[in-house]
UniProtKB/TrEMBL annotation:
Key word Hydrolase present: yes
GO molecular function: beta-galactosidase activity
Pfam families reported in the protein's UniProt record: BetaGal_dom2, Glyco_hydro_35
Reactions accelerated catalytically: Hydrolysis of terminal non-reducing beta-D-galactose residues in beta-D-galactosides
Protein name: Beta-galactosidase
InterPro entries for the chain: Betagal_dom2, Betagal_dom2_sf, GH, Gly_Hdrlase_35_cat, Glyco_hydro_35_CS, Glycoside_Hdrlase_35
Top EC class of this enzyme: hydrolase
Keyword Mitochondrion belongs to the record: no
Length: 800
C-alpha cells in the first residue's frame, strides 16, 4: 500500500533537490477488508480494528499511550501523576503487573497500598484514561527476576514454558488479577481496552537474582513458540481476563501467533543493558523512515519479525521515551531524540504511539529483598522519562506534547493515510546524516509531510538549500517558493499538504507544524509553530480564497497561489476568508513558545495558554476549573488566547496585566517560599540535610537538586534507604514531600561513593567536571552544588 516515488539525488555534489510523487498513493486503500468490531460498551461506545488502524465510534483513532507502574509510585500521588499524563496528551495508560510485587511469598497475595490494582484502574476511569494491562507473567521492566517471584526458582518447574506445573501457578496468578479487575473491561463499561500476555517471549530473559552471583543463571527467554502465548490466552480467558484486544511484543524474533493478538513494537536508540563496559553503540535505524507495506526492506529484516507486518496495524508499546541508566552505561537521552523517535514512527505508518516509560517511579522494597535487577539502582526507576521518578517534568514531556496536540486534532485524518517513501530509502543508512530523511502520509493530494535530521550516536550537520517538489493529482508544488529550506541538526517536523481549512478553502502547504485548533463562537483558529531555525512559508490555493490578510509578515499574490511569510510570535496572525465568507484565523508561534503552550476547555470555550516558565510548568483543566503548577519563582506569568472567561475565579490569585499581541497576560502570585533548611558535611562523602517541620508551608513540593561527581549516591531516612542514583552528568533530583511527616523535622543523610579513575563509565562524564585522581586510584567525591527548588500549585475554580 506504499507508493514509491521519491527521486533523491544522493550524489556527493547534490543532496538538495528531492521529489515526492503523491499521485501513486491514490489506490492505496483499495481492496482492504472491512473493520472488525472488537467490543461495544454499555454506553454504546464501539472499538473496532481495521487493516491499518483502530476505530473509536466509527472514527479512525491513533491511541497515545504511556507506561506507568502504580506499584512503583505512592498511592496518595496517583491522581496527580495521572493528571500530568492526561495534560501531556495521553489517552491510554499501559501498566505492568509485577508478579513478585503481589505474591512475594507463595500463596500470599497482597493488593494493598501501592499494589491496589482495582483502585488504580477505577481512578483511571474516573479521569477519562483507558488502560492496556500488561500481566506477564514475565514482564522484565528491570524488575527482580523479570517480575517472577523468587519462590518459583525453588519449585521444580520450567518457567516461561507449557510445563503444566508452571501453568498451575500462572493460572492462579491470572485468576487473582481477574478478581481485581472484574467488571472493569471496556465491554463492561470500564477502561481496560486490552491485555498484553508475556513480554519479549523467545527474545529476552532476565537474571535469576537468587543465584550465588547475580546474573550467573538466567530466567530463560522461552522455547515453546506461539503455542505458549496461545496457552496463556486460553488461561487468561478461562479465569475472566476477557478483553476486546490482546497484544504481544513482536520485536527481536519474539513469537507472534497467527491469530488473536495485535503485535506491538519497541524502539530504543540507547542500549545500556549491554554487558560489555567498553561497548560503543552504533547509530540506530530508528530514525530512518520505513513502511510496513514494504516488509521486504532491510529495515524490517533487521528487526527479525516473525509475522507478516503488512497484515496488522503498526503499533508501539515501547517507544523509548528515555532509558534507565545501568551501572556500566549512563547515557543521556536528549529531548530531540524522543521527539524524533515518535515523529519518525508516525511518518512510517505507526497508528498507535506507546511510550516506555512515560512516568518514572521507585522500586518498592520487599520483605526479603530489593526488587531491582542487579544492573540498575536499588530503588530509582526514573528512566529519564518525560515525567521523572518524583513526577518532575523533563524536557521530553513538552517535546512529545507537541505531537500529542497534533494527533488530538489531526489523528483521525492521519490514521488511514498510506506511507509514501523514496525508491532509494533502503540505501539511506543511519550514518548518512547529510541526506534529507522524509516521508509522506497522503491520499488524493492531501496529507502530511514528515522530515527529520536527528540521528543518535552520529555527528550531524545542518541541511542547507533543500528544495522539495511534490507531485499532486492536479499539479505540482515547490517547497519553498523562495530559496531553499534550512533544517537544523536535530530538528524533526510535520508539514501539512492540501489541508482544508474551511469549505473549499485549502492550505496547499506550510513549512510550519500544525499545533492545534481552537473552536469558539463559530470561529476557527489554527495554531502553528515554526520548528527551530526554519523559515515559515504558507501557500493558500487562490481558488476558494476570497481574501488573505497577514499581520506580522509579508505576502505575495500569484495567479493560482497566495503566499505568506509570517514572523513567528505572539503578534502574528493570518486571516483567510473562503468564498462563502467563512473566516479562518492562523496563529504562528515560535517552537519555544509552542513548547510552553497548553490547550484547555473552560466554560464551553477552547483556550491556548502559554506559561512563561523554564519548562517546569504544567496546566490541566477539569469541569471544576484550572490547575497550574510550576517550579522556581513564586510568580508565574500566564498568557491566554482568547481572553480567559469571566466564570474563572481569579480574585487573589490571578491578576490581569493587559494584552501582549493577540494574547492576554495574567500573573499568578504565591507567597515566596522561605528557606528553612540546613546542610552540613560531617565527612567528605556524607551530607546531612535538615528540613524544618513547616518546610512545605505554602508550596506543593520541594525538589532537592544535588550536582556532584560520584559513582553512586544514596539517601537514608532514619537509617533506611529511601532514594538512590548512579552518578551522571545530570543532577540527582529527589522530591521531598513524600518523606516529610506532619509536625516533624526531616533529617536526610546523603552518602556518596567515589568513581574509580580507570572506570569505563567515565566516558559518560565531561572531562572538565572530573577532579584529579587521589592516591588510592579514585576520583574524590565532588559536591558542586546543592539546592532546594520549591514547586507552587494554584487551582482556579470555575463558577457557573
Amino acid at each position: 500500500m506504499s507508493a514509491t516515488s521519491w527521486q533523491p539525488r544522493l550524489s556527493a555534489d547534490d543532496r538538495s533537490y528531492y521529489r515526492l510523487d503523491l499521485r501513486a498513493a491514490e489506490a492505496a486503500a483499495e481492496g482492504l477488508p472491512e473493520p472488525r468490531l472488537l467490543a461495544r460498551s454499555p454506553q454504546g461506545e464501539t472499538l473496532a480494528l481495521a487493516h491499518r488502524y483502530l476505530l473509536r465510534n466509527g472514527q479512525p483513532w491513533i491511541p497515545v499511550m504511556g507506561e506507568f507502574h502504580p506499584s512503583r509510585y505512592p498511592r496518595r500521588y496517583w491522581r496527580e501523576a495521572l493528571q500530568k499524563m492526561r495534560a501531556g496528551g495521553l489517552s491510554l495508560v499501559s501498566i505492568y503487573v509485577f508478579w513478585i510485587h503481589v505474591e512475594e511469598e507463595e500463596g500470599r497475595f497482597d493488593w494493598s497500598d501501592n499494589r491496589d490494582l482495582r483502585a488504580f484502574v477505577r481512578l483511571c476511569s474516573e479521569m477519562g484514561l483507558e488502560i492496556l494491562l500488561r500481566v506477564g507473567p514475565f514482564v522484565h521492566g528491570e524488575c527482580r527476576n523479570g517480575g517472577l517471584p523468587d519462590w518459583l526458582y525453588g519449585r521444580a518447574v520450567a518457567v516461561r514454558s507449557n510445563d503444566e506445573r508452571y501453568l498451575f501457578y500462572v493460572r492462579r496468578y491470572f485468576a487473582e488479577i481477574a478478581r481485581q479487575v472484574r467488571g472493569l473491561f471496556f465491554q463492561e463499561g470500564g477502561p481496560i481496552l486490552g491485555v498484553q500476555l508475556e513480554n519479549e517471549y523467545m527474545h529476552a530473559g532476565a537474571p535469576w537474582e537468587l543465584t550465588f552471583r547475580p546474573g550467573s543463571e538466567w530466567v530463560p527467554r522461552g522455547n515453546d513458540g506461539t503455542a505458549h502465548l496461545e496457552r496463556l490466552l486460553t488461561l487468561a480467558r478461562e479465569v475472566g481476563l476477557e478483553a476486546p484486544l490482546y497484544t504481544c511484543t513482536a520485536w527481536g524474533g519474539a513469537a507472534v501467533p497467527a491469530e488473536g493478538f495485535l503485535p506491538m513494537h519497541a524502539a530504543y536508540p540507547f542500549t545500556p543493558w549491554e554487558p560489555d563496559p567498553a561497548f560503543e553503540p552504533s547509530p540506530s535505524r530508528e530514525f530512518l523512515f520505513r513502511s510496513p507495506q514494504q516488509p521486504e526492506s532491510d529495515w524490517w529484516r533487521a528487526g527479525a519479525f516473525r509475522y507478516p507486518v503488512e497484515r496488522y496495524p503498526y503499533a508501539y508499546c515501547e517507544l523509548g521515551a528515555g532509558i534507565q541508566m545501568t551501572y556500566l552505561h549512563r547515557p543521556q537521552v536528549p529531548p530531540e531524540c524522543t521527539q524524533a523517535l515518535a515523529l519518525v514512527a508516525l511518518g512510517s505508518g505507526c497508528n498507535w504511539l506507546g511510550y516506555y516509560m512515560y512516568h518514572g517511579g521507585s522500586n518498592p522494597v520487599g520483605r526479603h529483598s530489593f526488587f531491582n535487577e542487579f544492573t540498575v539502582p536499588r530503588l530509582s526507576y526514573d528512566f529519564q522519562a518525560p515525567l521523572g521518578e518524583y513526577g518532575q517534568l523533563h524536557p521530553s514531556y513538552h517535546h512529545l506534547r507537541l505531537l500529542h496536540l497534533f494527533l488530538a486534532e489531526f489523528g483521525s485524518q492521519l490514521a488511514p493515510l498510506p506511507v509514501v517513501l523514496p525508491p532509494g530509502a533502503a540505501a539511506v543508512k543511519p550514518q548518512m546524516t547529510g541526506v534529507l530523511r522524509c516521508a509522506a502520509r497522503a491520499q488524493q493530494g492531501q496529507g502530511f509531510l514528515f522530515v527529520n535530521t536527528y540521528q543518535d550516536h552520529a555527528v550531524g550537520q545542518d541541511l542547507e538549500g533543500i528544495t522539495l517538489e511534490v507531485l499532486l493529482p492536479e499539479g505540482r508544488l515547490r517547497l519553498p517558493r523562495e530559496g531553499g529550506l534550512r533544517l537544523q541538526w536535530g530538528v524533526s517536523a510535520i508539514f501539512p499538504i492540501g489541508l482544508e481549512l474551511a469549505n473549499g478553502l485549502y492550505l496547499r502547504y506550510a513549512t510550519a507544524q500544525p499545533l492545534t485548533v481552537l473552536r469558539a463562537d463559530g470561529r476557527t483558529t489554527l495554531a502553528f509553530f515554526a520548528p527551530e531555525g526554519l523559515r515559515t512559508e504558507f501557500a493558500f490555493a487562490r481558488e476558494g480564497c476570497q481574501a488573505l490578510a497577514v499581520v506580522g509578515g509579508r505576502m505575495l499574490e500569484e495567479r493560482e497561489t497566495l503566499y505568506a511569510w509570517p514572523e513567528p510570535g505572539l503578534e502574528t496572525r493570518l486571516e483567510a476568508t473562503s468564498l462563502s465568507g467563512e473566516t479562518v484565523e492562523l496563529l504562528v508561534l515560535s517552537q519555544d513558545q509552542a513548547l510552553r503552550c497548553w490547550k484547555v476547555k473552560l466554560a464551553g470555550g477552547e483556550y491556548l495558554l502559554l506559561a512563561e516558565s523554564e519548562g517546569t510548568a504544567w496546566v490541566d483543566a477539569e469541569e471544576e476549573g484550572l490547575t497550574i503548577c510550576w517550579q522556581g519563582e513564586s510568580q508565574l506569568d500566564l498568557l491566554s488566547y482568547p481572553r480567559l472567561p469571566a466564570t474563572l475565579e481569579k480574585v487573589g490569585l490571578l491578576a490581569e496585566c493587559g494584552q501582549q499581541g493577540l494574547f492576554w497576560r495574567y500573573r499568578l502570585q504565591r507567597t515566596p517560599w522561605q528557606a528553612r533548611w540546613s546542610l552540613e558535611q560531617p565527612e567528605p562523602q556524607v551530607v546531612r540535610l535538615r528540613l524544618a517541620a513547616e518546610a512545605l508551608e505554602g508550596v506543593h513540593d520541594l525538589f532537592l537538586h544535588v550536582d556532584c561527581v560520584a559513582d553512586v549516591g544514596q539517601a537514608f531516612l532514619d537509617g533506611r534507604l529511601v532514594a538512590d542514583c548512579f552518578g551522571s552528568e545530570q543532577p540527582w533530583v529527589i522530591g521531598l514531600k513524600r518523606f516529610l511527616r506532619p509536625g516533624q523535622e526531616l533529617e536526610l543523610i546523603l552518602r556518596f561513593t567515589p568513581l574509580r579513575a580507570d572506570a569505563p563509565v567515565l566516558r559518560y562524564f565531561s572531562r572538565e567536571r572530573l577532579p584529579a585522581p587521589a592516591s588510592d586510584g579514585t576520583l574524590p567525591v565532588t559536591l558542586r552544588a546543592i539546592r532546594l527548588v520549591p514547586e507552587y500549585r494554584v487551582q482556579l475554580e470555575q463558577h457557573r
